[in-house]
Design goal:
By secondary structure, this protein is mainly α. About 60% of the residues lie in helices and about 0% in strands. Helix 1 packs across helix 2.
Length: about 90
């Protein structure tokens, strides 16, 4: 495990202290968890952007064209208030 010196505004440090106490964890654990969540979110955004860049609207529309035109199963209907022009 590594050690890092971190400078925080007093208000942020106080809030972190309060949250850690409320959660029953150390400030270090709170910060490590928050950083892990942020990294995960940023990695997910990057992954989705990379996947989207490989996408093809034409291929998507081709897949949609293969879907048979049948009524939705009971309970899967679009609510009237969400249908286009259904206001």
């Amino acid at each position: 495990m590594s050690t890092m010196s971190l400078r925080l505004p007093e208000s942020l440090h106080q809030r972190a202290r309060e949250l850690a106490e409320r959660e029953g964890i150390s400030i270090n654990q709170l910060i490590a968890t928050a950083l892990a969540e942020k990294i995960s979110a940023l990695d997910t955004i990057q992954y989705l952007e990379e996947r989207a860049a490989r996408g093809s609207r034409e291929a998507f529309l081709e897949v949609l064209r293969r879907i048979p035109s049948v009524p939705p199963a009971p309970g899967d209907e679009i609510p009237e208030e969400l249908r286009a022009g259904g206001e």
